[in-house]
Amino acid sequence: MTRKIAFILPPLVELLDLAGPAQVFREASLMGIELDIAFYAVEQQPASAVGLPLGKIRNYRKATLSEGDFIFIPGFYFEGLKRRPGIEYSFFRWLGDCSARKINICSVCNAAFILGSAGLLDGRECTTHWRSTDLLQSMFPAARVLTDVLFVKSGNVYTSAGISSGIDMALSILEEWLGPLVANQVSRGLVIYHRRGGKHSQQHIYLDYRNHINPKIHQVQDYMISHLELSLTVETLSELFNSSSRNLTRIFKEATGITINEYLTRLRVEKAGTLRNNPEYTITKIASECGFKSARQLQRILKKYSKSEK
Predict the structure, then answer these.
(1) Contact at 8 Å (CB) between 216 and 252?
(2) What are phi and psi of 190, to 5 degrees?
(3) CATH topology classification for 215-308
(4) How far apart are CA 60 and CA 99, in angstroms?
(5) Confidence at residue 24, expressed as pLDDT on a 0 to 100 scale
(6) Is the pTM higher than 0.85?
């Protein structure tokens, strides 16, 4: 199913608020994920907050959106909202209608004020740039404004904090659709680390230990993820990636903070936990699929990791 991502530019849009999330979805589309990325504007010929003219862009009313699609509204120079009440009020009504039709509405930075003006924050947890959280709460007292998170999802409404947190929110949306491995691959393509908000789920092994930019170690990690059923010894990996065992062991630990064998075990435990949800898989089959020598070894390691997490 092709998902539509409609970016709607408010007057005096902040460039990074727009470009960051847009680049996340662009990177995903280059990986073969079916996305329809489109751009619309509240005004016919918008300009950015820094004065860069953006040319003629279709009006937001031209957007054809269906249930499950996404609207992204980047942040803007705040005075721009006050100077255009006639245009903005009609936009607020349009946003409310989109939300009622189960279209997802996402704000970056102070675009949360647009969502609030549209009545979309009432009774919801939300956030915005740290400089504006108090103002957001005072202007929209029915909202539950959080001050210490990167982004918040509340039903079909997403809000994010300042500037680069729009990237984090876009990555989290990709993870909702396609899982943490895809989100990690996109973040690596952008040469960033996938951060997570306090309201989001805990870190995932496919995202953990990737906060580095060593291309060889990323390749080793990708290979391990895709070949867990094999006997992945340090010697085998060293030969595959043209390195000595000693050197690969050293640079892997330097890049990730853990050893190759520890990382491999964590990957296998994660996959085993996923496969256990399949009623057709016996514990013996799961052990084989994950590269454990026996069902008994798998059970022993699962018990060990279960205890360590308590």
Answers:
(1) no
(2) -90, 0
(3) Arc Repressor Mutant, subunit A (1.10.10)
(4) 14
(5) 96
(6) no
E strand or H helix at 216: helix 215-226
The angle formed by the CA atoms of residues 296, 228 and 182, to the nearest 5 degrees, is 130
pLDDT of residue 235: 96
In the block, tokens 């990709």 appear at 174
Q: Which CATH superfamily is domain 3-189 in?
A: Class I glutamine amidotransferase (GATase) domain (3.40.50.880)
∠ CA(167), CA(200), CA(23), 5° rounding? Answer: 15
Q: What is the pLDDT of residue 56?
A: 87
Query: Cα–Cα distance between 300 and 71 in angstroms, integer?
Result: 47
* Amino acid making up residue 126: C
The string of pLDDT tens digits covering residues 4-56 is 999 999 988 999 999 999 999 999 999 999 999 999 999 877 788 888 888 88
Which stretches does DSSP call E strand in 114-171?
125-126, 144-145, 151-154, 157-160
As a whole number of angstroms, the distance between CA 240 and CA 248 comes to 11
CA distance 15 to 22: 11
Listed in sequence order, the residues at least 6 apart from 190 whose beta carbon sits closer than 8 Å to its beta carbon are 23, 24, 27, 167
- Spans in the chain with pLDDT lower than 70: 79-87, 193-204, 307-310
Every domain of the chain and the residues it spans: 3-189, 215-308
Q: Which residue has the tokens 């929110």?
A: 169
Question: How confident is the model at residue 83, as a pLDDT?
Answer: 57
